[in-house]
From TrEMBL:
Every LD-carboxypeptidase C-terminal domain range: 181-292
Keywords: Carboxypeptidase, Hydrolase, Protease, Serine protease
Residue ranges of domain LD-carboxypeptidase N-terminal in the record: 16-135
Active site: S115 (nucleophile), E212 (charge relay system), H279 (charge relay system)
Signal peptide per UniProt: none
Domain of life: Bacteria
Name of the molecule in the record: LD-carboxypeptidase
GO MF term set: carboxypeptidase activity; serine-type peptidase activity
This protein's record includes keyword Protease: yes
Amino acid sequence: MSARLLPAPLTKGGRVGVVTVSAPEPAAHPDVFDRGLDRLRSRGYEPVIASHATSRDGYRAGSETQLMEDFHAFLADPGIDAVVCAGGGRSANRLLRGLDYELIAEHPKPIVGVSDPSLLLNAITARTGLITFHGPAVLWDFGAEEPPAATGDHFAAVLAGDAGAARIDAPLTWARTGTARGHLVAGCLSSLRCLLGTVWEPDWNGAVLAWEDAFKPVEQLDQALTHFRDRGVLDQIAGMVVGDLVSCEPSGGVSAHEMVMDLCAEYDFPVAFGLPFGHTPLKHTLPVGAEALLDSDAARLTITSPWTTQGGEKR
């Protein structure tokens, strides 16, 4: 990973560029999208909608060029303070080779996404060193009928660089105890898998890997995690924390917990389950690329390095 690059914090009054990088979800669910924009406004932000954020082009919101131009325009615009993804999908990796990573590094801003866009977050961090943020989407989180207030509260605290947000207080279940320190790689497992073997692959050496997924049977998660093992990822990481696996049902009577620990049996890094992030309504915002401490004695995940240019002091 490149040397760490910190974005400026996002505070109330900040202008938030809203982009769609994959599925045309705002076009399919305009009422939910509008509700999400209203919730951002109620929290003191000014959302600015990208040119193609509400468009539809088959199963994507636009062509690769159109979606990249939206993204680049917000990065280059000094009047935009952060970029937040509208929703998810399955084709965000189409943008990987066309992103202007030099432009991203020259204009370090908070970039937030979840699900499919999590691969872009980790690719950007790997190529530029910029801390990115695995956090709520405009549609499915801010636009939910009754979103947990804690989701928006933690988003606001983390992006403002509030040092108090460094402690991720969640009731983790420890499958294997221990302590792990390293930079944080966080995302949807099936999306992160798209980066394996590419020039955008994260630096796994000494990493704390936080992963989650949704709507997949355990045997499909097994296939994905085995790919990580056979790529050598599990030989390199310092620790693993698994998020809430939404609607990931057992296969052949085998639970996700059993599958993960079977694949991790030959390693000795700590493994925890139950971190609320990703597809679950109650979610924490995680700074990808920041230093993290996974500690079973303290029973928590803690971010231990700054993640914005102000606040987020080392703990």
